[in-house]
Each structure stands twice: as C-alpha cells, then as structure tokens.
Amino acid sequence: MTTLVNDTRQAWYSRRWAQIFLHAVAWITLFSLPYLLRPSPDQHRGPDPDERYWHIHFIINAILLTLFFYLNSNILIPKLIYRKKYLQFGGVLLLLFATLIYLRYLFVQSFITHKQAELKPTILFTFFTVLFILACSTAWRMIRDKMNADRLASAKENENLKTELSLLRSQVSPHFMFNVLNNMVALARKQSDQLEPSLIKLSSLMRYMLYEADEDTVALDKETDYLQSYIDLQQQRFGAKVQVNVSMQLPEHGYEIEPMLLIPFVENAFKHGTGLIPDARIDIELRARQGLLQFSVMNKYNPEYTEIKDKTSGIGLTNVKRRLNLLYKDNYQLLISKKEGWFVVSLQLHLH
After folding, report:
1. For 114, which of 14, 31, 169, 279 is 20 to 30 Å away at the CA?
2. Which residues form the Signal transduction histidine kinase internal region domain (predicted)?
C-alpha cells in the first residue's frame, strides 16, 4: 500500500465546493449586469429585429470568456508565466485575441441585418473585455497560489514544533542507549579492543543528533554515516543472534536530504525484528543515482508473537510519514507491507 498523509487543514473558502459556489456566483453576477443595467426599451422605435441573435452572441461570448479565464489561470500561468516563457505567453494571448475579434466580426457580419460590421469598435470592445478577464484570472491564480504557499509554510512550521519532542524520543530509543552503554561497560571490564571504535561510533552518532539534525538538509553521505554507526552498534549489541546485511551505494556527487529521515525505518527493524524470532535477519539497501533515492529495509517477524506496545510504539513511522508528506509532497513513494514472514519498507525519494 502507498502511505500518504495530509494533516493540512483548509479554511472553508479553500474547499472545492466553496470555490465552485463562489465562482458560479461571480460569473452569474458579472454576466447579469448588462441585462440589469440596460435602459428601458424605447416604445417608439419598436422591438429590435436582431435581439434574438444578440442574446445568442452574448451567451457564446460569455462561454468563451469563461473558458479563457480558466485557460489562463490553470494552464497559461503555471505552464508559461511561472516558467518564464513570456514570448510563448504573449503569442498565445495574441492568437486568442485575434480569434475573439474574428468571431465577433463574423457574427455581426452574418446575422445582424441593420448594423454594418466595423473592425475598430470590434477590436476596442474585445481588447478591454479580454484585458479585464485576463487581469481577474491572473490575480485570482496568484492570490490562490500565495495562500497555498502561506498555508503550507505554516503547516511545516507547526509540524516541526509539534513533532520535535516525539522525533527526539523515537529516533534513538533510550533502551538502545542503555544497552550500548552496558555493552561498553562489559567491553571495558574485558579490556576489549572493540571499546575504542565503539566509543567513536557512539560519539559520532550523538554529534550528528545534537548538531547536524538542526539543519534543514544535510549531505546524504552524512545521513548514511549516521545510519552505519547506528547499525554497527546494534550489530555489536546482538552479535550472532541477528544476521544484518547492509548495502549502501552513493554517487560521487553529493545529494542532500532532510536529517534523520531514514533512521526510523532502521530502528523499527531492530525493534521488531529481534527477540523471539527464529533466524532473525535484517536486510538494509540504499541506492542513489540520477536524483532518485531507493531505500529498503526488510526484517523477519514472528506473526504468532504479540508484542506489548509502549507509549512510543509507532511514533517513529508516524512522524516520518508526516514529514515526507510535508517536505516532499508528490516527490516520494512509501510502500509498507507484510509478506511471507517479512516486514518490508520501501522508499523512493527524489533528492535535492
């Protein structure tokens, strides 16, 4: 299954049904004005023989202007203006402007009997009408995008404040730290040669947590070094009880990633993939090339063993899902599944 989480709450006027309703009211009001504000008919002149054709022309013109409004706001601005393709944008506008002039001129020439079609009034009328719709459409699109950007920035800020404590508690479990320290005490008593490299790994792990994790992004190789130090300490703790296979391949040029984004998956594997599990095994694989990170963690689990969950159970995975959705939106895919005695996490991420 693909896990997508969206905690951003929208105001009522940002919801789809509200936008449709407000747009409908605006269009009805705008196109009703010519009928509401027109003068009373002159009884001495009699009815206009072409009035029916003018109504048809008004309806067709209203439909074309409405289509132009949404064409500009939904396609031209994001595809051309935001990508700084101003010449293409100007060319499309000229083409649409010429098309509207031709259609109005052709209509008057073909259906209006008592009035001669004139090019100059047609150009002026179409120009100011198109300019008005263009201005309204552009303003609406930019205001909407600004509101969305502000809402997303606010959601990111609130999310960081709300999850800071739970992230610190979940990324490296206190149980893990106590077990590593107890293991080092045992190594010191034995005067083992493994004590010094273990202390160095623990020091680098703590340094990364205290200093690097405060940055918005870190180099991918630093994140993988942190993962490797964590895995090495866990391997030292479990020894031959758990088979751990690690494969990490990084490109020569560096990528950046949000700090401590991958560790919850590894910690979850060691937390739930050890214990009362025959032939316990954890496979960790990381590949990064052409701007795409492929990261997978697999651990065996015992479906017959019911684990007693504490208050922090599941906090790590829940947090990382929320962070992925806020930071990467549509630029990631997270798959979590259980099959044939294996718990599998697979992450594809477009890197910076």
Report:
1. 31
2. 164-241
Are 281 and 185 within one domain?
yes
Question: How far lies 251's CA from each of 92, 248, 259, 347, in Å?
Answer: 42, 10, 18, 18
Going by pLDDT thresholds of 50, 70 and 90, the confidence category of residue 18 is confident
| Residues 298, 265 contacting (CB under 8 angstroms) | no
pLDDT of residue 166: 47
For the residues 152-159, what does the mean pLDDT come to?
Answer: 76
The answer to whether residues 305 and 200 belong to one domain is yes
Among 122, 134, 132, smallest CA distance to 98 is for 122
Check if the beta carbon of residue 319 is closer than 8 Å to that of residue 167.
Answer: yes
pLDDT at 311 over 60: no
332 near 350, Cβ under 8 Å? Answer: yes
Same domain, 113 and 205: no
**What is the bridge-based pairing of β-strands 218-219 and 256-257?**
antiparallel
Residue-wise pLDDT for 41-63, tens only, equals 555 454 555 566 567 767 787 88
CB pairs under 8 A, 24+ apart, for 29-33?
31/58, 31/62
Looking at 148, 166, 184, which one is the last position of a domain? 166
Question: Does residue 152 sit in the same domain as residue 183?
Answer: no
Tell me the pLDDT tens digit for each residue of 247-264. 998 877 778 988 888 888
> What's the pLDDT band for 7 if we cut at 50, 70, 90?
very low
CATH number at residue 258: 3.30.565.10
Residue 326 lies in a domain: yes
